[in-house]
Amino acid sequence: MQRFETLDWVVIAIYFFLIAALAIWVMTRKQQNTEDYFLAGRNLGWFVVGASIFASNIGSEHVVGLAGAGAGGKIPMLIYELHAWLVITLGWVFLPFYMRSGVFTTPEFLERRFNSNTRWFLSVFSLVAYVLTKVSVTVYAGGIVIASILGISFWTGALVTVVLTGIYTVLGGMRAVVYTEALQTIVLVLGAGTLTFVGLNSVGGWDGLRSSLEPGYLNMWRPASDPEFPWPSLVITSSIVGMWYWCTDQYIVQRVLSARNITQGRRGTIFGGLLKLLPVFLFLVPGIVALALKNRGELHWDSPDEAFASLLMNKMPAGLRGLVAAGLLAALMSSLASVFNSCSTLFTVDIYKKLRPDTPEKDLLNIGRVATVIVVILGILWIPIMQNISGVLYQYLQSVQSYIAPPITAVFILGIFFRRINSSGALATLIVGLIVAFLRIGLELASDSLDPNGIVYALAKANFLTFAAWFFLFCVIVCVVVSYLTPAPSPEQIQGLTYSSLTEQQKQANRNSYNVWDIAFSLIVIGIVVYVMFSFTG
Q: Angle CA(61)–CA(64)–CA(67) in degrees, nearest 5?
């Protein structure tokens, strides 16, 4: 494997200089209150919102895991990258309710729709979920990438990146996060896009790629009887997880809440949805190329998670290697910065401020910074446990998200579309859902010590996609049944928070917030999603 040359280091140094200069510029703009610090003063335009959505989503787990899925025969996992239609759903369906409510967080919206107990529960639930998935996976994947490329130890690479990202996130707040993410998006697309082009060229284009793989390798649709990726469960569960992640998760929603109005926020989601289509070509395809080159004897790697780094270091010329490496660092830093800031927001606004409502704004900012440090430490401690759950990194992320998404998705969808759903039904669904999710994770970890002939073992080993699909149905039933067994919410409580309770004035304001071009670009993105799905059918 080749090593970095002087030109590569120069390119990486330029990247860090640009990030530092941008972060310092943003930090010179004082944060006066929590709205400035956590939502960038609610004054962002569509380009920055869309780029921030994309950069927040694309972390090192995509670089390592999605390329690993391509190299390891897990092509069906790319359906999670075709959720551009769900990004758009955030802008068209959910965003008007969030912005009309004037909330800082999605748990705060649940308080407006239901009661404070649901807000408390989702806030704590979300913080735990960030530690289980986003922080630990991003740090772990980043450590793998940095160690394999820069030739340093895993923990050194991971911790150094965490510290550097934490500095500008803590000091600059949301504004520093979104503006650096806009720059990191450009670097990431240029870097990974160059690797895809060089990789395809080295394997003889798309036709050469197909000829180097076994027949049917690129088919993302498996039979319903497939033990790993049955297509009905894959479609249902990926949509459930996508609805939770893109439309209700503070990590993503915080970006659109920072927009100056609904129009800019919605256009940001359309732009973000268009960018969301890129990972298929930026990361999955390089993984498949690495496998094709390995089959030809031109590339060697032991684990699919090493495919991307192996292709980078052996096929890219000096200078371009540095550009791609800068893109990988951008992916790691942008995701970490996003989750750090979201954790700060959740803890400060939804927990600390609720407990001490008279706390001065200045003190709240300091509390948020301390919360960030604690979450980072917990995420790092979870990494050794995480390694035992699933063999392929990207599949680990999706499996854990598949356990925590169903109850939250059920509560938000039912809460907005059905006025009869009340706080008792919502809270019961969240509590039961959390218990079931952690039981499943615990059983999966302990499956080797269970009786192979027992029901508990069968539950632990059930396909995670099928389990999540039935789990979602269970959550919907719990929410509806409990709601109908308890008193209905009052009309005043749900006014403007469900579709059926919108006033004519609110409906007209929503219609005035978009034009024919917004609709046209949304349909174009959906059309591209359908085209890509049909492209991976054989």
A: 120
